[in-house]
Write a structure and sequence with these properties.
- Two copies of one chain form a homodimer.
- With 220 residues, the first copy, chain A, is of the alpha/beta class.
- The first copy, chain A, contains seven helices and ten strands.
- In chain A, the strands form two sheets. Chain A has a six-stranded mixed sheet with strand order 6-7-8-3-9-10.
- In chain A, α3 packs parallel to α5.
- The first copy, chain A, is globular, with a radius of gyration of 17 Å.
- Chains A and B meet through α5 and α6 of A and α5 and α6 of B.
- The complex binds adenosine-5'-triphosphate (2 copies) and magnesium ion (MG) (2 copies).
- The site of one magnesium ion has 4 residues of chain A, from α1.
């Protein structure tokens, strides 16, 4: 379960304050599939990074299963994240010097004893249609192929929570449907908790509920 | 006018050949707005890079207004590209050390005497809704904001040809519509030639015709 209370995030650029989040509270129960929509710049990625413990809020608190990030050391927060959270970044964040296989394997190595089993990795690779591209480095992959490698990397350890930032933004409808079917299947059969940002209204419909953001707030 | 004849592009990865383009021919007349659709990995970005003179085909020829890339020196091809072609990249390719204003201004400086006028730049910035973000560097911008800066940069010199690789992939519907309206307006009022890759069927409908790609070929 993810709990967030009164999240505020203010960035400073020169003399100006950018209010990226203006007081966001939410609760995602274990096993939910929540989608997040809203205009460009409305604070979606900022929210996801804070939920994942990658960014500190200016004020407010996030807890994972009752453990508040603010009460943990950096090392403890990193360990919590590595064991529980898979993250698909809006710009993929693949390591440029490793090929697709290496990027996915690195995620398994980092998880140590919590690493996913090889059969799960192989099944994901086939479901996402990237088996023929495992030897390619990121700059030798199409945009949509990079995105699918990023998705495989996020899912390979069967994380309890998946935070996905526009995972179908670079995909055609056929591949997009395949990805959403995979996410829905993992949610229904493994009870994986998913928070997914999307601009695609059809993709938003895959969640069991949708949060709308505008100007740094969740709006009813 | 853009003419392409029998384009083949083969990448080599280790022992394996990847046939990204398998014989593509096309003609885009001056003033056309052509959209390109197709599955992830079907060769769309490869085609666009070759049309823009950024990548050499393995075989085949591209000509811009009758001048074949293959007959030009590297310096001549670069000059032809800078004067005539604006490119919106699938991953934006903004310079990380410059802010949004700097990225856009650099495009004007590079064009030298062919630079667009400041009024055109200012109008684009307002139409794309990025005026409040000009002091932000790319990693201080949302995904959709980076995309809109990349679009402004490509258009600021009023290039005769715009090659746009999924320019609305990271945008919500409102911003996406705004971008497509801008492109349609430039095409209709200035006669700007546009070749746009998109996964969004609604966006594809903005062109006067659509090319479908599958497995490295244009299919009827
Ligand atoms: N530098 C490279 N080296 C090897 N293979 C490459 C390279 N660039 C692209 N490819 C391969 O060529 C094929 C076509 O790539 P391309 O980027 O043109 O696809 P695309 O249609 O733009 O896909 P997407 O919709 O996912 O962006 C892909 O299968 C990709 O893996
Ligand atoms: N590091 C930063 N420094 C300054 N401002 C930032 C930074 N990161 C984000 N912002 C600003 O905060 C606002 C929210 O950004 P965020 O990335 O959360 O938006 P988003 O909803 O994900 O947008 P998109 O749909 O375009 O990806 C944006 O206006 C952006 O310019
Ligand atoms: Mg975002
Ligand atoms: Mg592409």
């Amino acid at each position: 379960r993810i709990t967030a209370k009164d999240l505020v995030k203010i960035y400073r650029i020169g003399e100006v304050d950018v209010h990226a989040l203006r007081g966001v509270s939410l609760r995602v129960e274990a096993g939910e599939f929540v989608t997040v929509v809203g205009a460009s710049g409305s604070g979606k990625s900022t929210l996801l990074h804070i939920l994942g413990g990658l960014t500190h809020p200016t004020s407010g608190e996030v807890s994972i299963d009752g453990r508040a990030y603010g009460s943990l050391s950096d090392a403890q927060r990193t360990a919590l994240r590595r064991r529980n959270i898979g993250f698909v970044f809006q710009k993929f964040n693949l390591l440029p010097t490793l090929d697709a296989r290496g990027n996915i394997e690195l995620a398994r190595e980092i998880a140590g004893p919590e690493a996913g089993v090889p059969q799960h990795r192989d099944r994901l690779i086939d479901l996402l249609g990237i088996r023929a591209r495992l030897n390619h480095r990121p700059n030798q992959l199409s945009g949509g192929e990079q995105q699918r490698v990023a998705i495989a990397r996020a899912l390979v350890n069967e994380p309890r929570i998946l935070l996905a930032d526009e995972p179908t933004g670079n995909l055609d409808s056929k591949n997009s449907d395949a990805v959403l079917q995979v996410l829905q299947e993992l949610n229904r059969s493994l009870g994986q908790t998913i928070v997914m940002i999307t601009h695609n209204p059809d993709a938003a419909a895959f969640g069991n509920r949708t949060l709308h953001m505008r100007d740094g707030q969740i709006v009813g």
